[in-house]
Amino acid sequence: MSAVQIVEVGPRDGFQNIGPFIPTQTKIAMIRDLAAAGLKRMEVTSFVSARAIPQLCDAPEVLADTLAQAKTLAQVLVPNARYGLKALEAGATFLSYVFSISESHNRSNVRASPEESLADYARLVDGLPAGTRMRLNLATSFDCPFEGRTPAARVLEFLERAFEIMPEAEICLCDTTGRGEPDQVGELFAQSMARCPEVAAWAMHAHDTYGRGADNVLAAHASGVRIFDAAIGGLGGCPYAPGASGNVATEDVVRLFHDMGVQTGVDAEALLPIARRAAALPGANAGSRCLLPAAGAPR
């Protein structure tokens, strides 16, 4: 079977909900160790309001070290053009722009309508330096914490408009709340690929709030997706999606694909001690299956 790429989002999505500030050097050390374990692409931080998400106030320092190490492709999340420009000024070469398909969630998250965020995305794209890579995250593609199930037609409408703005961007459909289910995931990816067959690459961002993360990853994989977000230790959650728990755990996704005979380029055993460190961070809420005691093992 063909290989997949795991995008480690723990240093951004995994850390952002943790209250006690994680020392910058602790973040840097974990990113370096994750790279050494074979995770060659990571969402290392986000340029956002330090008042809104104080955990990520050290974004410039974290990004600078990752770029200096040159061992991983450093992806940086940005919620609007303003912070996109800040990330570019700090040296970012791979942006991950996010907006929500759902009106209420996007207003809660970035205080703008989806239409306004799409227009802002166009402004950011228009000013990108040559060679800058872009991913577009369509949050709440499957479900919204305020509005419920997201209509597929609405996702497809925004997808088509976003593709016209930057055809070479990678597109990621995000299960922000973890309420998506496998049939829905598979069908939406199939419809999206049919609507925009020339998208450069497709990705899946899964949360595991209801224990469906791995099943939804498999559904996306069966639809042809080969890029998957995951967070070490299953850390994470969206601060603007009440009740949403962590991302699907990196070590669980790697083990799943390896058991299927699908290559990830990641050392599964090397991930486990890093996952234990992540889970032990003060304020962390881990959700890893691999870290659970095996049946019959001492607790």
TrEMBL record:
Gene3D superfamilies: Aldolase class I (3.20.20.70). GO terms for biological process: ketone body biosynthetic process; L-leucine catabolic process. The keyword Metal-binding applies. Residues 4-272 form the Pyruvate carboxyltransferase domain. The keyword Metal-binding applies. Pfam families: HMGL-like. Keywords: Lyase, Metal-binding. GO terms for molecular function: hydroxymethylglutaryl-CoA lyase activity; metal ion binding. Belongs to the HMG-CoA lyase family. This is Possible hydroxymethylglutaryl-CoA lyase.
